[in-house]
Amino acid sequence: MYKIVSKEQFSQNVFRLCVEAPLIARACRAGNFVIVRIADKGERIPLTIAASDAEKGIITLVVQRVGLSSTRLCELNEGDEILDVVGPLGQPTHIENHGTVVCAGGGVGVAPMLPIATALKKAGNRVISVLAGRSKELIILEKEVRAVSDEVIIMTDDGSYGDKGLVTEGVERVIKREKVDKCFAIGPAVMMKFVCLLTKKYEIPTEVSLNTIMVDGTGMCGACRVTVDGKTKFVCVDGPEFDGHKVDFDGMLKRLAAFKDMEREEIEKYNDVHCEADPAQNEDAELIDRNAEWRVALRGKMKAKDRTNIERCVMPELDPVYRARSLR
Q1: 151 and 237 share a domain?
Q2: d(Cα 302, Cα 323) in Å, to the nearest integer?
């Protein structure tokens, strides 16, 4: 079990959790991530390590409440324990003195960008950070980023803080005024796509950190596969960082959208149960008990052979034409 030693809320749906994980804290490097499981029957979710303290044995995770598992994680408080935290996983960021680097972080993407910017600064780079969000309250870790950056540019969609505009406008502003040797971009997939289209126009090498659907984190399940330079790569073991100019973002976006409807249904079910339940009760235990009752009732009504004949649900998948094209 991994104890949460502190919790901070950045915005309505974004939280910072500091978790006791001594072995991971000593071994992790910029770019590494962990896979977290809240309960025995819970989903395994990947989270990038935003910071680590080897002496205290603590790692920092920034979590956005989106689906069922992230919602349950965000509902935990200081002193609560997480069942599993596995890591460090993935390939660490290749750090060297490139010269002038632009670190573009969108939304919660600023969290995994922070250790990279820190390592780049220590390597002697001139670090210019561009932080972006829909509004002021969605700009996170500004103080920490400023501490390791030579300059910070803030862009908000609504103009409530910094300059009004998209992250690409902030990046292009830097490119037009001085030579940029390398760009790092982390955030929503669509944001990384357009940053890469911009930097490709100016022939600036760009690294992106991909956050795909992930199950086991060892490269065995294949859920996190992406196409990079026409070849299939697994984000969990080959990444999470890749040459952004070679990533098939359109294919990645299709895969990310495959389970959106199912995710929405599950969070709605959870909210219904959560509202009806006695606050003094453990919601996770209640859900597990209900599932157990359902299974017992089914076994009593049908034999195993009959259950195997039940029509299976159709799993969402990429259309055959797209699959055929991606395998060429």
Answers
A1: yes
A2: 38
Instruction: Assess contact for 131 and 111: CB atoms under 8 A.
Output: no
* Tokens describing residue 323: 């699959």
Q: Establish if 247 belongs to a structural domain.
A: yes
Domain hosting 127: range is: 100-256
At 68, which CATH number?
2.40.30.10
Q: Using 50, 70 and 90 to split pLDDT, how confident is the model at 108?
A: confident
Contact 110, 86 (CB under 8 A): no
Rounded Cα distance between 264 and 271, Å, is 11
Please tell me the predicted confidence (pLDDT) of residue 37: 87
How many structural domains is the chain composed of? 2
- 248 and 197 within one domain: yes
Determine the pLDDT at residue 262. 66
* Residue 77: Cβ within 10 Å count: 10
> Does a structural domain hold residue 150?
yes
Q: Which residues pair with 207 in a beta bridge?
A: 184, 243
Same domain, 83 and 113: no
The C-alpha atoms of residue 62 and residue 70 are separated, in whole angstroms, by 11
Same domain flag for 188 and 56: no
CA distance 66 to 263: 9
Q: pLDDT tens across 90-104, in order? A: 888 899 999 999 999
The helix-helix angle for 283-301 and 260-276 (nearest 10°) equals 110
**CATH code, domain carrying 148:** 3.40.50.80
**Amino acid occupying residue 163:** D
* Phi, psi of 59, deg, nearest 5: -115, 150
Neighbours of 43 (CB within 10 A): 17
Residue 241 near residue 91, CB atoms below 8 Å: yes
Residues 128, 75 share a domain: no
